[in-house]
Amino acid sequence: MNKTIEILQTRRSHRDFDENHRLSKEELQAILDAARQAPSWMNGQFYSIIVIQDEKIREQLVKWNPGNAHMMKGSVFLLFVGDLYRTKMVSSAHESSYSIDESIEPIILATTDAALALENAVIAAESLGLGSVVVGSIRKHGKEISQLLDLPEKTFPLFGLSIGKPIVEMKVKPRLPEPAVIHYDKYQPYAYTLIEQYNQTMEAFGEARETKRWSQKFSDYFAAKPQMITDQLLRMRGLLK
After folding, report:
1. If you ran DSSP here, which 8-state letter would residue 149 be given?
2. What's 136's DSSP letter?
3. Are 71 and 160 in contact (CB under 8 A)?
4. Which residues form the Nitroreductase domain (predicted)?
């Protein structure tokens, strides 16, 4: 097995970091360069990355997300932003219309591009002997974060990435059984027993932060009334009607 495949297959989320560890400029630049080389639809690169090193800003982010103290304790925190402001500038320069609020497609493009850049950053960090964890809960405070970081219109915070030197060894988390995820040529039906099997696998894995069975967690999540926080933010940012 080559080193890249090994890193991909053994990646784990880390939330406990050495607070005294600092990334070198070269390491940070290598991670950012790797992120920017991610695949992008039509080479549109519909995202921006905010490198947050300022302690006061990171403290504020933790106040809004108290369950994610690693945003302060890691060596650096990267915020990935869906960015359709850049192409608005392009449209203005070409004196063409910019009706991106009429379809969800531009939002999907920006989200996908940002997610691909994020994954490149994750793997680059792992290759340097560092650890990371993705933070999706920042969307709950997208309005406040947009104001705090002076994000222009047509942009929206998507997710963050805490990077640092791990101080707690984490186990590789089991994934769903392959037949429930991988299909060849056509979508292949599978028995619900595969989900039950995964429930048992995760219970045996015994992750302390999980308080519910895997299936119950997502049954509850999708049964709850949507908060519509992201929808409201996208309308506010001029991205949805």
Report:
1. T
2. -
3. yes
4. 9-165
Q: Is the CB of residue 17 less than 8 Å from the CB of residue 165?
A: yes
* pLDDT score of 124: 98
Strand, helix or coil at 195? helix
Token readout for 43 is 């080479």
pLDDT at 165: 97
pLDDT category of residue 228 using cuts at 50, 70 and 90: confident
Cα-based angle 226, 229, 231 (whole degrees, multiple of 5): 90
CATH code, residues 3-172: 3.40.109.10
3-class secondary-structure state, position 157: strand
Closest to 33 in 3D by CA, of 172, 135, 103, 127:
127
d(CA 201, CA 214): 10
C-alpha–C-alpha distance, residues 201 and 27, integer Å: 36
Dist. CA 68–CA 171, nearest whole Å: 19
- Roughly how many angstroms between the first and final C-alpha of the chain, as a whole number? 49
